[in-house]
Amino acid sequence: MEDSWSSSVDVHLDWTPGSGRHALANAVRAAIRDGRWRSGAIVPSTRALAHDLGIARGTVTRVYADLAAEGYLHTSQGAPTRVATAGAEALSSPDPAYTHRPPRQWNLMVGRPDPSLFPRDLWTAAAKRVLQHTPNETFGYGEPRGSSVLRTTLSAYAGRSRGVRTDPARIVICAGFSHAIGVLGRALRRVGITEMAFEDPSFVRFRAFAAATGQHVVGVPVDEQGMDVTQLNSPAVVVTPAHQAPMGVTMAPARRTALAQSGALVIEDDYDGEFRFDHHQVGALQALAPEKVIYAGTASKTLAPSLRLAWLVLPRALVDPVVSVIEAEGVYVPMLDQLVLADMISSGAYDRHVRRCRLEYRARRDRLVAALPPHLIPRGISAGLHLTIPMSFSDESAVPALAARHSLAIATVGESRIDADGPAGLVVGYGAPPKNSFGGTLAALLAMLQEM
Ligand SMILES: Cc1ncc(COP(=O)(O)O)c(C=O)c1O
């Protein structure tokens, strides 16, 4: 059906001739959000659309490139451009980040920790302590920047565990990194920054959140040494230096230094920094340039994504703009959860839990790597809850149908790619399955790989 919607078919866009490139991009975004340009459908070729609208082909090419970077369109080498599937759903559904895969028996989705590892007992004990001792003010409206107790605790924790240079006054609590990226998109506009670069590949939902704040989103290629800093030309950039998402590489020391000295404002997404499996410690990039790097930590991997708890360590000049965006939004993280996390960290329970999880995930990583067929060489295995398996474009494009047949929820690098010529492969989120089903999930993956 969707393939019949070829590049020569007429499409309607609410666009006034002469209104410019940004208006054209808005018209295409609206067509995708409204479902008029359907998820997965082939879009008109740049030549055909330029002809129909009576504008230069280069204008359409730039609009398509921008929309691919934002996650609305999906470009693929040697294939027509399509409306993105995950991206289009993410941009139109009310709960974009965590529902974009149909239920399958086996889950290897990147970015998910094992929900069965949530420390129910430790959380209950900490919640009890908090409720017994917290003053009545806890039940008021709270602070837009977050609980001072949690900010003080996190200041010590981020310094001790990740080498972050901070004090409580620089810390702001957000409802997950997903919330933080939107807050930052707005705050950066207030200080005159209107373009944000992201690694290519990088997760589409974060690019979409930034684009939704009016930021122009562009991609910077990633190779074996992490993001290629020489290709960065934007005033702000979001990076995952400790364990690139999704490729898994660690940014090389020379690139870290170059990035810290580049003059760009860096948003360091340290989403799984607690899970390093080798002895090669990779501290926070933020320590190299605390006034140029925004450090972002999250409880989504160590505890649970549903807590919606993340923290930003900000350059001093950005504290007020960020707090005023949060105040204007009126969205604060629940105070009791903040206090429970603070209690868990200061009692040592959080560190013990993280250590236990690290052992579990490392054991899974070892089992997975040992079980892979020898011709598949995994990458990004030193850290985090996922690794990648590089593969050809044609093997990658076979994955969705094969995964469905094996009832496996799994992502490809292609879903995160901005440039159609970028890397291809499979992203194996071995952290996702509950402990008791890891064996079955691994067997499903191996059965799928055998058919490729
Ligand atoms: C690359 C990356 N950054 C950040 C996060 C954390 O996002 P949040 O704090 O909104 O759960 C994730 C979670 O999947 C991630 O994969």
User: What is the end-to-end distance?
Assistant: 26 Å
Q: Which percent band covers the strand fraction?
A: 5-15%
Low-pLDDT segments, ≥5 res: 1-6, 87-99
CATH level 1 class label of the largest domain? Alpha Beta
In words, what does this structure look like?
Helix 1 (21-33) crosses helix 3, helix 5 (120-133) packs across helix 11 (335-347) and helix 7 runs parallel beside helix 8 (204-212). The model is unreliable at 1-6 and 87-99 (pLDDT under 50). The chain has 3 domains: 2-92, Orthogonal Bundle (Arc Repressor Mutant, subunit A), CATH 1.10.10; 106-116 and 351-450, Aspartate Aminotransferase, domain 1 (Alpha-Beta Complex); 135-347, Aspartate Aminotransferase, domain 2 (3-Layer(aba) Sandwich), CATH 3.40.640. It is an alpha/beta fold. The protein contains 14 helices and 15 strands. A hairpin with a 2-residue loop joins strand 6 (216-223) and strand 7. An 8-stranded mixed beta sheet has the order 4-11-10-9-8-5-6-7, sandwiched between helices. The protein has a 3-stranded antiparallel beta sheet with strand order 12-15-14, covered by helices on one side. Bound molecules: pyridoxal-5'-phosphate (PLP). Pyridoxal-5'-phosphate (PLP) binds next to helix 7. InterPro entries: Aminotransferase_I/II_large, HTH_trans_reg/aminotransferase, PyrdxlP-dep_Trfase, PyrdxlP-dep_Trfase_major, Tscrpt_reg_HTH_GntR, WH-like_DNA-bd_sf, WH_DNA-bd_sf. Residues 18-86 form the HTH gntR-type domain.
